[in-house]
Design brief:
This protein has 13 helices and eleven strands. With about 300 residues, the chain is of the alpha/beta class. The chain has one domain. The strands form three sheets. It has a seven-stranded mixed sheet. A two-stranded antiparallel sheet has the order 1-2. The chain is globular.
Length: about 300
């Protein structure tokens, strides 16, 4: 199979046989079959990924999206002093997927990136566009690829190898979104299950941690509008509690990428709003269990794909 290394040319690496897997958790989620990827097919997949990145880079959607992201990050810096001011002169973005090693020396931010649930980008067009946007996001914020952590329980061996050869870090364990942070972190979680967002909020349920969090994912406002209030309060307590403290910026509208980035927003949690809450608001945060939830939408830890015969 082929892969894009962190700092060089596209190359062919030794193939590794995969196994057919199914995706089914206790909620009965369907699982796409994963077929063996030959060297030739690997090259075709990586070519499609590169073409998708370039298409997105040259689109009006990315121009608007880039401006939106830059504006949010800069506004976050102004409001909380938690992030450095980021600027990227027009026309000076890297022209290819290859990561420029000297970016590390000139990186203007210590922002980490965690990506959950991007899906099977080797076979899904939607997932491939979302991965392409992640590549462009790292470029425009000048974040080294080794500062980007990814996990999806459905990643194939080929996909894991591809991401690692691109310089990214593939997490080994299913954290269910329960990753505590200790520095400014951007979570990239497009079209993930509501429980994943809820778990993330619970694990970082403090004004100090949430002030350092930026989240790109499904609109919290949209969740509030679609879910019955009793369900939101019972199953997704932390989303429910954080709604009034959240500043949400919608992604630009695009008819071409409607199915890929619909209902996506950038969420931030301004320090001024967080510290206005009494200490009792943050104390005694119980871990979510979802015992009454009828549609969990995530694969929980310990639930594995099964082989298809």
């Amino acid at each position: 199979m082929s892969a894009c290394p962190a700092g060089g040319e596209w190359k062919t690496i030794s193939k590794k046989k995969g196994i057919k897997k199914g995706r089914e958790n206790i909620r009965g989620m369907p699982c796409p079959e994963v077929e063996f990827v030959s060297v030739a097919e690997g090259k075709r997949i990586q070519q499609r990924i590169q073409e998708t990145v370039e298409e997105l880079r040259n689109s009006e959607f990315w121009t608007d999206c880039d401006e939106t992201i830059q504006g949010v990050v800069n506004m976050y810096h102004t409001a909380t002093l938690a992030f450095p001011s980021i600027s990227f002169p027009s026309g000076e973005a890297p022209e290819s997927l290859e990561y420029k090693k000297d970016n590390k020396d000139h990186c203007q931010t210590t922002l980490d990136v965690v990506c959950y649930g991007i899906g099977n980008f080797s076979s899904s067009v939607t997932s491939r566009y979302q991965l392409a946007l992640l590549f462009l996001l790292l470029e425009t914020l000048q974040i080294p690829r080794d500062g980007c952590l990814l996990f999806d329980p459905l990643f194939t061996e080929w996909e894991k190898r591809f991401l690692k050869d691109c310089g990214m870090v593939v997490l080994k364990d299913n954290e269910e979104g329960k990753r505590p942070i200790n520095k400014p972190t951007l979570f990239y979680m497009i079209h993930c299950g509501k429980a994943l967002y809820n778990n993330l909020l619970w694990k970082n349920w403090s004004s100090e941690k949430l002030a350092q969090t930026i989240l790109i994912g499904n609109s919290f406002k949209g969740m509030e509008e679609r879910l019955p209030a009793r369900v939101l309060q019972r199953d997704y307590t932390y989303i429910n509690h954080i709604l009034a403290l959240t500043e949400e910026t919608a992604f630009p509208c695009s008819s071409r990428y409607t199915d890929v980035f619909n209902d996506t927003a950038i969420h931030q949690f301004p320090t001024k709003k967080l510290i206005a809450k009494p200490s009792e608001f943050w104390e005694g945060a119980a871990e979510p269990t979802y015992q009454e939830c009828e549609d969990l939408e995530i694969i929980q830890k310990g639930i594995k794909c099964f082989s298809v015969t």
